[in-house]
Prior knowledge:
This protein is mostly helical. Helices cover 86% and strands 0% of the residues.
Amino acid sequence: MPTQAGAEDLPAGLADRLRSLAASVVELAHARLQLLGADAELQVERVRDVALFGAAAAMLLALALAFASMLVVAVYWDTHRLTALAVVALVHGAGALACIALARRALRSAGRPFEASIDELRRDVEQLRTHR
């Protein structure tokens, strides 16, 4: 029955090269995982900051619009109350549509998350393919 070749059956130079190659692969994977972790932390911080400031801005803007709307309606209450209410409603609707369009554009133009990590991994694969 044939025996399986173990590490002790390999020539010393080949075993050293295989160990060195394995160490290099582990080192490369470690570096790329650190880069991926750093990218993930940046994305989490970015999303948190955008959500926090966006929520604060939305709340303050809503209050400002509510009071401005009440002021416009109060000014025209005696003469053109329905017209004032309609104009305020149309302005709010147009503003909402503009915000939706801007949000969609921002989502489309945002870079892909982890783009730097993906590019580095792609370069690593290409480099490994050329060194065969």
